[in-house]
Amino acid sequence: MAASRIVIENCAIATVDANDTEYASGHVVVADNLIESVGAGRAPAGLENVVRRVDGTGHLLTPGLVNTHHHFYQWITRGLATDHNLFDWLVALYPTWARIDEPMARAAAQGSLAMMARGGVTTAMDHHYVYPRGAGDLSGAIIGAASETGVRFTLARGSMDRGRSDGGLPPDFAVESLEDALAATEATVDKYHDASFGAMTQIAVAPCSPFSVSTELMRQGAELARRKGVRLHTHGSETVEEEQFCKELFGMGPTDYFESTGWLGSDVWMAHCVHMNDSDIAAFGRTGTGVAHCPSSNARLAAGIARVPDMLRAGVPVGLGVDGTASNESGELHTELRNALLINRLGAHRESALTARQALRLGTHGGAQVLGRADQIGSVETGKLADLVLWKLDTLAHSSIADPVVALVLGAAAPVTLSLVNGRTVVEDNHLTTVDEDAVARSTRAEARRLARIAAAG
Question: Which tens digits make up the pLDDT trace of 133-149?
Fold first, then answer.
């Protein structure tokens, strides 16, 4: 059967390929779910079975944004504990989070996914680690929401087995036993992970953090992931308090602890990595361990400024993350392009820390590297999956910025005229085509109120 083609023409294109190839006015041809051609000028004449032509005049076409760290469930606890550092914030919110159930998880996932997708995210991930007893099928609810929204998705099946009585932060009834956590994680991998090219759903093994997980869960989690051939994800080196916790409990800093438990490698990525010394960064670069940089959340929780320029120079794969919307209420990855550039310029490298194009690379190709999918997504190249975003840059908001990449990264949030995932339209004229945004808003509002009532009742 002949391929169905979509032709996008007359737009600026930032391919984010290895050479950072750009076209002031170019075209992309999509055949079914793959990029068939990309180049300067108009599309080739005589193309057959063209089902749609898009005039991209006044637009910039980029790879779809790739989110590498999130906690969807937090959508229904936004705007709380707004003046806390990480540990105090966790203590304040864990009693509420520990009461989530399946309808809440599904609604929160729908809200998180809708906000990201509408803002140009084509590949999302969720690090879900709160599995209260009797809460229902939370993983299934989250994966179902991603499928409905139409984005490419990685569920990092998290876990916690160190409750408050064992020196951890979460309430005891919100944690799993070591055996239950490993068994449930393996079952999730077996049921949902798709290792094929173009997969829409993948699973990672993701114990939550050193201060909520036993050493044995870290070790056995790494063994499980490698036995199953999936990636590993956790939080790392987020705050100075975490570093002190690791030294007191394990007699070493976070990076050395991760290495001792099998948690450094090209199949691993860590969220945050704010407090990394030269030796830590060198270890990540040497082993190919990736980083999900979450600038807005790091600022919201006063965690600090991650050394992203130094990581990139050391060869560390770095992508961007929204993080949970209880510490980044906007829930949009586009915001992170701008904030990654601005916040890193407050660090030691100042104005030479990051460029607009490096920020765009973090949000696209860098994220694809971190998720282990750079051969499939993250750049606009022939043979890659058709995950593309067409940004509208000809309105008042960007009218006097000549450079389209600078306009996208440093300007106001650009409307998304078209977003394709796997060649399928997910956003059209700044609105989702796959789900009813108003219905999602009503659902998330209702579930947030229900959770607040349950938490208040104790």
Answer: 899 999 999 999 999 99
